[in-house]
Amino acid sequence: MKYSLIYLFLFLAGTCLVAQSQMDFPKDDWKAYKNVADAGYSAAKLDAAKTLFENSQAAGLLIVHRGRVLASWGETTRRFMCASIRKSFMNALIGIAAEKGKMDLDKSLAQLNIDDIGQLTAIEKGATVKQLLAARSGVYHAAAFSPRNMARNLPARGSHKPGDFWFYNNWDFNTLVTIFEQETGQRVFPTFQKWIAEPLRLSDFSLDHTYYCHEPDKSAHPAYLFRMSARDMARFGHLFLNNGRWEDQQIVPENWIKRSTSPISKDLGHFAPRGAYGYLWWVSRPIAGTNMYFASGSGGQRVAVLPEADLVLVHVVNSYQFRNVDHQAFVKLVETILAAREGTAKGKPQLQAMNWPEITKPATTHLAPEVLRRYEGDYQHRRLGRFRVSAAENKLKLELRVGIYDMLPTGPDTFYIPDIDVPATFRETSEPSRKGQVDSIVDDNRIVTQIFLNY
After folding, report:
1. Most buried of 161, 313, 394, 413, CB within 10 angstroms?
2. CA distance 367 to 393
3. 241, 131, 230, 233: which is closest to 192 by C-alpha?
4. Longest dimension (CA), the chain
């Protein structure tokens, strides 16, 4: 019996080492398969998935198998708004903080002294951090950065007790940032940089691409927004695929990932086609017999993890241009990718350096500070709301509801906005009614090709 147990232990340890050796962890850059057959995939069948992708409104798709790029289509290096993928980033931070003893997830809002505009009721304050993570707080207070459908369908205050009912409400998710910062004494974005971005060596991320969206007329708790490239989000997905481990470092606790990505709520109402909800992660029904969990953002932003297939898929949509890919179309794409599997992956595949798509930027120039100050002020777009332009450190900054962007001068009154990738022109007007208005030029495909800021 003693020797049998020893042999069993050695067998399991060896199996674990073999499984780990199959995984790569990208250093400063990714490696790509020279031949997708080495990963057990058919190139012809993957082309069917590529056609499906190209016929959609998606902007980019990155397929990563065992830490190596299987396919990269479209704009996988451009930073897009992550939208609600931010919530899965918060999941990782809270899991780490809880492991460090900095957060007690069983504490209630009352114990944490959390309140909001107009005060929460005693019953609402009984909601725990875990219930916020699971979107089951029963607090139906107005929230910052809430889409119209979310705000319109918000249940009546007091209609459900904490824990009794699932509702996807930004109040729960936004309040988590207040609790995280209060309990840890750390700001969320620099902590994400230290705990996640640095050890994973994110290529395109900086704190300039993060933003607190405050709407103090609605709530005291801000939304916390990220914009990020597909190749950086793929590293985050790969961290979860490996149960929170990156190389020899356990970054996110393994038991936290298992709990967070297991079904907690299945009563999802009109979200039922998505499957179930865990802690800030969606848990899909099996697709082609394969389990999947995913982070999801408005418009079709997705980070999907398929552990049994050793896959991470990152799907991005140009939401700056209001493009949209619905969830069923994304599922169909996943099915097509899985259908391309037809063999066994090689233990030592042939790899090559990844050739990423380049982002072309126009030539820029220098403008005197007095010229830049001429354009400062608040502008208004009829659909997009306020545009705030400010000059600092010989640069123009554009602040929108979703973040702050550089405006790089390409001429005396023309500017290029990275990430958004639309040229902007400041246009002087003598008409008082036109001052401070923003106009946009739209092509036949409803793509904004240029914006004009009237000053």
Report:
1. 313
2. 12
3. 233
4. 93
* Arithmetic mean of pLDDT, 90-104: 98
Contact 177, 225 (CB under 8 A): no
Residue pair 131/104 in contact by the 8 Å Cβ criterion: no
Whether pTM exceeds 0.85: yes
On whether the CB atoms of residues 373 and 391 are closer than 8 A, the answer is yes
Mean of the pLDDT values across residues 254-266?
98
Mean pLDDT within 305-311: 98
Q: Which residues contact 124 (CB under 8 A, 6 or more apart)?
A: 109, 137, 138, 139, 141, 157, 158, 162
> pLDDT at position 279, please?
98
Q: Which fold has domain 84-223?
A: Beta-lactamase (3.40.710)
Among residues 311, 397, 422, 251, which one has the least CA distance to residue 46? 311
Residue indicated by tokens 């939208």: 83
If phi over 0 gives left and psi between -120 and 50 gives alpha, with beta otherwise, what is residue 82? alpha
Q: What is the pLDDT of residue 11?
A: 37
What does the domain layout of the chain look like in residue ranges? Answer: 19-78+229-359, 84-223, 369-454
Homologous superfamily of domain range 19-78+229-359: DD-peptidase/beta-lactamase superfamily (3.40.710.10)
On the question of pLDDT at 6 being above 90, the answer is no
Please say if the pLDDT value at position 21 is more than 70. Answer: no
Residue among 192, 176, 158, 170 nearest 105 (CA):
176
